[in-house]
Amino acid sequence: QVHLVESGGGLVQAGGSLRLSCAASGSTYNINLSGWYRQAPGKQRELVANIGSGGLTNYADSVKGRFTNSRDNAKTTVYLEMNSLKPEDTAVYYCNVRTGWASQYSYWGQGTQVTVSS
Question: Sheet containing 67-71: which strands, arranged edge to edge?
Fold first, then answer.
């Protein structure tokens, strides 16, 4: 089991920046993939970015060049640095990690609201 606690959301003007953090506890030794999803009102949850055990990162096209997904060396804290924020980035952001030999176990944070005003 992995427990995730997110922080760092809030209200920001367009063009501004925010940094989200996600602290993992429990069976963190087996984390293979760490990342962030978001869900805007009336829309499906979508992948924002993730980072594999080897450090390879993957980003949604809509955030490439603006967001940076990173983690600490212990792989217990994941960060999402968000720059040049746009109103369409407004959503609840969820931290997600996957464990298991095939990354078959998925754990979610409680979500943190990010609101970008125009």
Answer: 2-7, 18-26, 77-82, 67-71
Distance CA 40, CA 75 (A): 27
Per-residue pLDDT tens digits for 78-116 = 999 999 999 999 999 999 999 988 889 999 999 999 999
Q: Considering Cα of 116, then 39, then 107, then 112, what sign does the dihedral take?
A: positive
Report CA-CA distances (Å) from 103 to 33, 53, 69, 75, 111: 7, 11, 19, 15, 21
**Do the beta carbons of residue 59 and residue 51 sit within 8 Å?**
no
Question: Residue 30 is encoded by which pair of tokens?
Answer: 């087996």
Q: Which candidate, 45, 29, 26, places its Cα nearest to that of 95?
A: 45
For 80, half-sphere exposure in the C-beta direction (CA atoms, 13 angstrom radius) is 32
Give the C-alpha separation, 47 to 35, whole Å. 8
Q: Which residues are CB-neighbours of 31 under 8 A, at least 6 positions away?
A: 2, 24, 53, 75, 97, 98, 99
